[in-house]
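Example with several molecule types.
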Amino acid sequence: MSTADEGGLAGLDRLLRNTFEWYTVSKKEFKDAIRSKGLWLLGLIFTTAFIAPVALALYFDIGVGQQGQGLGMQLLLSQVYLNMVTLLLPIVAIFLGFAAISKERTSGSLKLLLSLPHSRKDVIIGKVLGRCAVLGVPLVASLAITAVFLTASRLTFKPELFGLFSFFTVVFALVFVAIVVSISGAFKKSLWSGAANFIVYFYFTFLWNAGANGVGNILSNELGVTGAIRWHVVLLLKLVNPNQAYKTLVNSMLGSGEAPALSARYGMFRQGEEASRTICADVLNGAPQAQEGVFGTIITCAPGSGSLPFYYSDPAVVVFMLAWIGIAASVSYYTFNLADL
Amino acid sequence: MTAIELDGVRKEFGDVVALNGVDLTVEEGEVFGFLGPNGAGKSTTINILLDFVRPTAGSATVLGHDVNEESKAIRERIGVLPEGYDVYERLTGREHVEFVIESKNADDDPMALLERVGVADAADRRAGGYSKGMKQRLVLAMALVDEPDLLILDEPTTGLDPNGARKMRDLVREESERGATVFFSSHILGQVESVCDTVGILQDGELVAKDSVEGLRAAAQGDMKLVVTVGDTDGLDAAVEDVRSLPEVSGVTMDTDRITVNCDGDAKMTVLNTFEESGVAVEDFETQEASLEDLFTAYTERQEVEA
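Resulting structure tokens for the full complex:
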């Protein structure tokens, strides 16, 4: 600490360098990548995408009815931003990171990097964190600009809600950057890394849910695992997908009921009457309630006597997401460490 | 202590044997020239020293550390100009050197190093715009950070003009005088001959020779090659026998009226006189200093004949 105080920024720089072995690599990475014109273009597109809906709402007076004014921001987040983030942000992360290691490998700059006293582990960690900063800085900036626009609009701005949304969004972005950069470390050519990344993105975004339900069906039909255990497995599988985890976190944050986390987890399922009862009562510790609707009985899930199991709570879901950074980096380190350059 | 030690190092890439049991020792303080045609396995050897590739069999140490287990400790103390590298396009020359200084926790002045290799003028330009030669100088400056105990230079003169190549040799001498060990590879003999204490020749993944530059030259062909053309071949066989028996002569080969004599550098007159005394008139003669090129060709050809 005293070093930092004495030397100001330079002292802090030295302190970080002496404390974290990956620091020098991540700093170089950030310096290098932040000068890419393509990156600034991405930042611009990003900011525009965030601001456009607000600007439109301002211009056309959309959603400024009496009720709309109050709920407008929730609607904006759940109807527009949530889908935009889950579809767009991973693509931005892929553009930013798919070549992070593979390009250095092809061009040969990795040889310069690894002829210095950096272990391959430092290189992976430094790369992941450096690129996280590269995405994080423009993302936070565009979120901040969006906040300014929101305050100026006639929608009621709810800072705590937007703050939490920003936090989840940043975590989601960092998780994807970690996955993308790690995949990059496992391939010798950027082309392969790019292809692998898009497959992973496509799988996470569009196929994972069907896969999780498919596992549930196999458990029940082929292996005779039914009831609560089946739905526990399905829910855990769903939550393991960062995409789904992010969505359910934001939904829980936006929820207005007594137990928003419970409703958000329950909302991850679209099942028939019997299964819904099981999920609500035996998996989520809730109290299923039947409502007669036009299309038959609809089961809703109210808070029960017990509380939501801690491993399905919001903090646990955040931990699931963050665990990806570690998993991705270790798998990448393992493959990268074995390889000849 | 030894700077570099390879013990039975073998490396296979799929079916291809890149190195076939290489044993090699480089002493501390030596300037070692690592020679061989392209594809002989020089870069593979260097990549093993840097832990870029792992040997299939055998082991290697650098400055007493195992190349795989203690690679980081090695890289704290060496400077490297690798083969097939590239610079970071968007970082300036100065930032490159600063990055190395920070990585090694050294306190060199980046400008002084850039000055030394002659790219100080371009210090604040992005390295992506540098010419091939400037990039080479920049990476050399990076290799010189923190006065490394060992410099590993893979084909350091590629991409340099003759002036730059000479400057490179001067730098190697300066570093050697400071006490550093220098290990550099080349397929051009002229680059190696003038600065190296010791030369090793790698051929098809095997070390075929290792000696001092003088030692190798003497061992292969003697100090001087004297080509004598005679007018009349009568009595030539007897004369050649007389020449061959001279203590200064290491070998004689005959091609009708042209006789090639390998002998000590100052034995020219003795050889010519012996021909005359044996009754053979010398019509013409020329002398050639045996270059490392001849030596290299000799080794390469010997390999081909055996194969």
